């Protein structure tokens, strides 16, 4: 009998394989009572569409997150409810149209009326799988009612494994390696790498001093930000927060900065750049993410709490302005002994970004 750990690893591996197939423009099957054939609208080509039709025996419909569907159907932006299905008329039935409808930053097609139709079973799981692959949450989909998928060599992933992905990823999280990495602002520091079973995703802990000897060491949860952390982008305050936190921990004598692989509040770098384009057209951070089909914040802070427990840290002082992080750590079993503010002045470029953090995300920036 396989162990629970091996079973969890196998489930995660299959989910990641399916997400990778979507990124490659290959259809996958969502397994259940009525299997659903799905193909990412963002990466699909003409050959993939032809294969899709041959397997499903029907034209696909387009599955979208509700906010994106509202935009192309010209209806009010809804709350983040279930996935919406849209059918293309004959005049628009081309693979490039699917891709354009999925991406609000692309030139939008004209010459036909889009129609909302009943979403198939497992539509929400399909959207979730696209998000795991950091793709636009938009899929071509059709139920498989016969044996069309037999012999096609497609990956099939159970819907239940997609739905339970976030919890399974945390269960499989483990420490891989730790190495001393002296930093200019904190010479006594090391980096600890964590990886989830069945996944190539890696999260890091930047450990300053010996926080395990402190009753409640200073801890910051920091989501990776390529543009801010590495390039010094002025659109956000992430780089300042990263370097400022490390200096603060060195001054405090110890601390842990959890560097989570959750770029752009969990939407990934490419989608964050798309969101920047939408912000340049007048949307704020929250609405830009939603128009792309993502939630306002897609991060999984349970990963950070699990990393702390694996390092033997159960009580912390949290370096943050975000009340959601305080609530998340408490809900995940980490005792928060106090909050330490982490404020940086606007730079003339990120003023509206910071204002949105305060007004719409509830960040404590006063």
Précis, in short:
With 366 residues, the protein is an alpha/beta fold. The protein is 39% helix and 21% strand. It has a 7-stranded mixed beta sheet, with helices on both faces. It has a 7-stranded mixed beta sheet with strand order 8-9-10-12-11-13-14, sandwiched between helices.
Model description:
It contains 15 helices and 14 strands. By secondary structure, the chain is of the alpha/beta class. The chain folds into two domains: 4-165, DHBP synthase (Alpha-Beta Complex), CATH 3.90.870.10; 173-262 and 299-361, GTP cyclohydrolase II (Rossmann fold, 3-Layer(aba) Sandwich), CATH 3.40.50. The longest helix has 20 residues, at 4-23. It is globular, with a radius of gyration of 22 Å. It starts with a helix and ends in a 5-residue tail after the last helix. The model has no long low-confidence stretch (mean pLDDT 92).
Q: What strand line-up does the widest sheet have?
A: 5-4-3-6-2-1-7
Shape descriptor: globular
Task: Estimate the helix proportion, in percent.
Answer: 25-40%
Q: In DSSP terms, counting alpha (H) and pi (I) runs of 4 or more, how many helices?
A: 15
Low-confidence stretches: none
CATH superfamily of the largest domain: DHBP synthase
> Per DSSP, what share of the residues sits in E-state strands of 2 or more residues?
15-25%
Total domain modules: 2
The mean pLDDT is: 92
Biggest beta sheet attributes: 7 strands, mixed
